[in-house]
Design a protein that fits this description.
Function: Forms chloride channels.
Largest sheet: none
Strand content: under 5%
Number of helices: 17
Family: Belongs to the anion channel-forming bestrophin (TC 1.A.46) family. Calcium-sensitive chloride channel subfamily.
Keywords: Cell membrane, Chloride, Chloride channel, Ion channel, Ion transport, Membrane, Transmembrane, Transmembrane helix, Transport
Distance between the termini: 84 Å
Protein name: Bestrophin homolog
GO cellular component, one term: plasma membrane
Helix content: 40-55%
Number of strands: 0
């Protein structure tokens, strides 16, 4: 079940977020406590071995090893590695959520464009929306362990009325080595076309609204989301990428077991470190591993963890709402009448006692609405734009403004080469009207182009002479 704490942090006051630290289900403590216990036990075991079992001669090489581990820990940028690993996984997690197919848009289109209050009309609308839900269940059954446990076989799908026995036989008779989640969408298109031929759709616009792929209409959007879920399940985060981060983090804390121990000085008279039997800073740093656990939990959000998507609840909601929309609510409208504010303007809905203080706040009209302007009337008189002064241009700026652009250079005219097709320009006879004659020519640009042409001709003559 998804852990929701939105109501607990509705108001940002003292202690509102601190209360979340005492939640257990779905918390970081639940993810880390087993690894934390193992780390503490290993640390205590090494500490006892160093303090009680090693002799003075044996402690010296242990100290050397600890110093080496201390230098090696600087080679693992743990914060960077974890941030670089978690960011794409969180983006992938949210993209998977937005790819879950919802029938809300399709059920509204079906209810408004497939007509008929008789039994045939009801069958068409209910069958169309059932095909939509069947496609979603088939794809969720392929990617979610919760849904697969709920519908392990096609018999369970028939028993749940997502498909009939005839539809099951038709589905199983189509031989394909690939996932068949797309078949109900094809049934949808054929049935929608049949409804149009039977006169259930008023015109071709309604049919196009349902299925038009060129304009990204409803069925195509639904189909695309089902396909994205399949591809997210198929193409995972690179295994090498996950292994590198996991090895780096676990190696870091393996070095911590040795380096963070209390060590006696190698030479007499050397200052000793404070003997902390409990390494508080190291234990707090262990919660860095929580980022790795977060990535491990949401890398596949269709499992059975506490914060994974509730796909079974989503299936129940989609089927119930969609059938209600296309059947019970078809042309079942409340009577249209005058509203309470028919003769009132402006309209002001009432407030309760708990929210009456909000009426005292003025409406926001813009950040510059209350800006104090100059009181001198002469400063507010309109004036004409000042002409540009030649002193405002420096020689360097004038040089850059007069420089010819490569896009209009004479070198780029003609047909060019295959490597630079974007530099091709059509050749136009001087007698024929130019397609660019509507645009005024810049005299400075023309001079620069002619100068560039002359320099090219001189360079060619020099090359020939040499």
């Amino acid at each position: 079940m998804t852990i929701s704490y939105t109501l607990k942090v509705a108001d940002s006051h003292f202690g509102s977020f601190s209360k979340l630290l005492f939640c257990w289900k779905g918390s970081i403590y639940m993810l880390l406590y087993k690894g934390f216990i193992v780390f503490v036990v290993l640390y205590a075991a090494l500490s006892l071995v160093y303090r009680r079992l090693l002799t003075e001669d044996q402690k010296h090489p242990y100290t050397k090893v600890a110093q080496y581990c201390n230098r090696s820990m600087d080679l693992i940028p743990m914060s960077f590695v974890l941030g670089f690993h978690v960011t794409p996984i969180v983006n992938r997690w949210w993209a998977q959520y937005t790819s879950i197919p919802l029938p809300d848009q399709l059920m509204c289109v079906i209810s408004s464009n497939v007509h008929g209050k008789n039994e045939r009309g009801r069958i068409l609308r209910r069958t169309l929306i059932r095909y939509v839900n069947l496609s979603a269940v088939l794809i969720l059954r392929s990617v979610s362990t919760r849904v697969l446990k709920r519908f392990p076989t096609m018999d369970h799908m028939v028993e749940a009325s997502f498909m009939t026995q005839d539809e099951r036989k038709k589905l199983e008779s189509l031989h394909s080595d690939f996932n068949k989640y797309w078949i109900p969408c094809v049934w949808f298109t054929n049935l929608a076309a049949q409804a149009r031929r039977d006169g259930r759709g008023r015109n071709d616009v309604a049919l196009r609204l349902l299925m038009d792929m060129s304009r990204r209409r409803e069925l195509n959007l639904y189909w695309a989301k089902c396909s994205m879920l399949f591809h997210y399940d198929w193409i995972s985060i690179l295994l090498v990428y996950t292994q590198v981060v996991t090895i780096a983090i676990y190696s870091f804390f393996a070095f911590c077991l040795i380096q963070r121990q209390f060590l006696e000085p190698l030479e007499p008279g050397q200052e000793e470190d404070l003997d902390m039997y409990i390494p508080l800073s190291t234990l707090l740093q262990f919660f860095y591993a929580g980022w790795l656990k977060v990535a491990e939990q949401i890398i596949n959000t269709f499992g059975e963890d506490d914060d994974d998507f509730e796909t079974n609840k989503l299936i129940d909601r989609n089927l119930q709402v969609s059938l209600l929309s296309v059947d019970d609510m078809y042309q079942n409208l409340p009577p249209a009448g005058k509203d309470k504010y028919w003769n009132e303007s402006p309209v002001q809905p009432p407030y309760t006692t708990a929210t009456a203080a909000e009426t005292l706040k003025p409406s926001f009209l813009g950040s510059t609405f209350d800006m104090c302007m100059c009181e001198d009337p002469e400063q507010n008189q309109p004036v004409e734009a000042l002409p540009s002064s030649p002193h405002t241009r420096t020689p360097l700026l004038t040089h850059f403004l007069a420089a010819a652009s490569p896009a209009v250079s004479l070198k780029n005219f003609g047909w060019g080469s295959r490597a630079h097709p974007h530099l091709r320009r059509p050749r136009v006879d001087s007698s024929s009207p130019s397609p660019y004659s509507n645009h005024s020519e810049d005299p400075e640009a023309v001079v620069c182009i002619e100068k560039e042409q002359m320099e090219d001709e001189e360079s060619q003559h020099m090359t020939t002479f040499c």
